UniProtKB/TrEMBL annotation:
PANTHER family: MATERNAL EFFECT EMBRYO ARREST PROTEIN, OS07G0240400 PROTEIN. It comes from the Eukaryota. It comes from Lithocarpus litseifolius. The chain crosses the membrane at residues 12-32, 60-82, 103-126, 146-171. This is Maternal effect embryo arrest 60. The keyword Aminoacyl-tRNA synthetase does not apply. Keywords: Membrane, Transmembrane, Transmembrane helix.
Amino acid sequence: MPTGTSVHVTALDGIVNVNSLFTLAVFVGLTWNPNDPSNTLINDQACAAGPSKAEDLVSFHVYSFSSFLFSSLIALGLKQAIRISKSPTYHPYEFIARSHKSFLRIGMLVSGIGSFCGCGFLMMALVNVVQIKLGTLACGNSSASYAAVVPLVILVPIALLTYASFVLYAFSR
C-alpha cells in the first residue's frame, strides 16, 4: 500500500502529464486559422459562424492554456516541496512549508481545479471549432454540429467528474 506522500506525488505526476497533453492540444488548436474560407464543411452559408465564434475560439484556447499552465506549475511546485522536505540537507528555517498535510492538500486541490477549468475551457473551444467547421448550433439544419457537440458535452463532464473524484480522493489522503 503506498504511503500518503507517494499517493500525492503520483497524483501530482498525473496532473502534470495530463496538463502537458492538453497544453499541446491547445497549441495545435491555436495554429489553426478559423477564418480560412477553404477550411469549412458548411454548405448553407446561413449556418456559417460569424467572427464572434472565432474570437470565442481563441479566447477559450487562451483560458484553457493558462488554466493548464497554472495547474502544472502548482503541481510541480508541490512536488519540489515534497522533494526538498525529504532531503537530508533540509533545514526548517530555509523552507517553511515542510510538506504540511494542509499545505499539500490545498495545493493539490487548487491544481486539480486548474486542470478542471482548463478541460472545461478546452471543451468550449472545441464546441466553437465544431460551429465554425460544421455550422452553428442555432442553425436549423446543423445535425452534424449536434452529432459532434452532444457526445462532447456529455462525455467530457463525465470524465471531469471522474477526475474530480480522484483528485478529491488524493486530497483526503
